[in-house]
Amino acid sequence: MNLYEVMNDKELELLSNAGIKIEENKDYLKEDFKIMEQQIVDYIMSASSKNGDIDKRRNQYESIFKIIDIK
Fold first, then answer.
1. Does residue 66 contact residue 33 with C-beta atoms inside 8 Å?
2. Where does the pLDDT of residue 70 fall: very low under 50, low under 70, confident under 90, or very high at 90 and above?
3. Sequence-distant contacts of 58-66: CB under 8 A, at least 24 apart
4. Distance between CA 40 and CA 57 in Å, rounded?
5. Among 24, 30, 59, 61, which lies 20 to 30 A Cα-Cα from 70?
6. Is the CB of residue 25 less than 8 Å from the CB of residue 18?
7. What's the pTM?
8. 63 CB contacts (<8 Å, ≥6 apart)?
């Protein structure tokens, strides 16, 4: 799946914020998505739980998890 074709600019920016670089003409495989999932989870968990930042980040990335079909 080419993520540039299925994600909007905000979602691509969120991936970049999590340290994930998306190549424009690359078709990503399920294995790639599993790696991305771990990077996103690590990024989400690096936020402060005291002020609710983990929940805010989790909500921000929910649409991305749906696109790459990870639950």
1. no
2. low
3. 60/14, 61/14, 61/18, 63/11, 64/7, 64/11, 64/14, 64/15, 64/40, 65/37, 65/40
4. 9
5. 24
6. no
7. 0.88
8. 11
Domains in the chain: how many in total? 1
Compute the mean pLDDT over every residue in the chain, rounded to the nearest whole number.
93
What's the Cα-to-Cα distance from 42 to each of 17, 20, 24, 47, 58, rounded to whole Å?
12, 12, 24, 9, 11
Length of the chain: 71
Sign of CA dihedral 6, 11, 13, 16: negative
* Residue range of the domain that includes 42: 3-67
Token pair 């998505």: residue: 33
